[in-house]
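Q: Here's a chain of 623 amino acids. Please give me its 3D structure as tokens.
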Amino acid sequence: MADIAWLMRRLKAMSLPEVAWRLSQKRIQKSEEKRFRSNKCSVVDELFDKKLEGMSLDADKMHLNLDNRDYSLSASIPLLGGYEYEEYKKAWSAGFQTENEWSDTFSYSLEYKQRDDIGDARTNWELNRHFQFALLAKDYYASGDKKYLNELIMLFEDWNQKNPFLWGISWTSIMEIAIRCSNWCYTYCFLAKSNDVPKEILTQLQTGILNMTAYIENHYSRYSSANNHLIVEAYAIGQSGVLFGNQKWIDLAVSILTREFPLQNYSDGINKELSLHYQSFYMEAVGLLMRLLLKNGISVPESWYTWLPKMSEYLATCVGKHGEVIEFGDNDEGKILDLCGGYNHYKYVLGLMSCLLDTEYTDVSVCCENLNWLFTEERAEACKKNRYTPKKCTCYKEGGNTILRSEDERILIGIDHAALGFGSIAAHGHADALSFQMYVDGQPIFVDPGTYIYHCDIENRNAFRRTENHNTVCIDGKDQSEMLGAFLWGKRAECKLVEEAETPESVKVKASHNGYSPVIHTRTYTFNEKNELIIADELTAESDMVVNFLLAPGIDVTLSRNKVCISAENVAVVMNICCEKECDIKFVDKPYSRSYGVYGTTKCINISTMADKLQVGIKIEER
């Protein structure tokens, strides 16, 4: 059972119209439960809505580059948490973090949040998104080798036998159904263009896609849940609309996405979730549908051409010369399409946007295989477009991040002076106001702790969001913002950009937040032409303050008085700590997750003092 206190807190985050909508959803669910509890069937067995009879999927409308000869052949996909695909490829109900499995329970009755007795639902959902289906269909089309087709048919039949419609963990999230629906569309299109494919699997795929799309149409996210989930759900509805020639679905998807651009994004191009990966995820969904619309001669709203370039510029600004990335907030490594078995999502999305817009945002000639199948001449044309070049200092005053670069691009720095997150729940934010990250020559030096896990181990879910585990000031061991649940926040720190100034000699960014009210924390970052970063913290009252600097794993540190020497593989950094009051400097272990589902620790430079001011100078040494 869900925690009653959490339910009350969640209810407070809802408006009256949202409560009314959720009650109407409950009525629909009761009707569905009555029908599908007594009729336990696969999503491919029959068409649930007879109004959709006669509709047929036209694989030509996907406009795949069927002449592509630049491809890989892989029969497995990467799973979150480093689990072996071959071991789990038919373990559709696996708990992953435990040896237990998700029960064969009607999905509306299945409680999947904080199930330490089973595992993390997000880890399970990755397998049930069916990237492997589209991958195997592509492999069979490209190679003609029946082993890929046979593997696909075996997995397809096994999944449908073990996952009846609305039963079990794979039917608990509308967005998960949307991603699965999308992958079934690509699976169908590759198989429809291949030889010797049994007609039965094509018929079943088509039936399943129609049933899933109709279900998404009835249940897509709204109100406080209308974040990236809604964008992906709308994309899936729109993709099916194009492929089946259903104008109602096309119009619904386009209207949702057009409406949501200003609601979910700041005017300077930063997504209001304030998570770089969720911005990339959002952009992939919109980009894939935009491609389909353009390929099929369907008008794309003009506003899309206003929003997407700004969003692409921000994403490109956060990526360094060596591929290093500045990212704050949650990252669950979500994606929609994977035709190669793993890739760099940021470069792929920037490549996707480069093919759709008037600017090249990354080197499209070396982007992921997805683009080889999605585009033909557009990719070659993208290489001729003007390349976007980030500035030395890009301050996003509305979105609340500043990205700094040295002239030689050796150093990349990200500063967070943003709001906590999007909407009334701020689901994917972290209590990390005024924190920063730094890379030198592509090597991470000062890092964000990461995300680790979503739906189990609440203690560590919270730990990776706590202020004390980020590169900022923590007062009295408290968090800047109040955590009320794994994806729910109460009282929040409010950030204010006080000053942003740039001269030929230096860049200065000064911001404050009220998360420790009545004490106000102000932090000033100064990055000068000598590639020194000076961080000055000031409180409005003397307090028990701790300033943390999380180091990337594998970095060596030594301490001599108030001087810390940091040594990475090919980089040396010196920190000079200046405080009028006595301070204690020590090295402690902090939680760190290099990728979703993987828990680790890393060293942290921990500076504690009873003071109202502290300054740290960070200098990159020549080696």
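Q: Can you summarize the key feature?
A: Residues 16-38 form the longest helix (23 residues).
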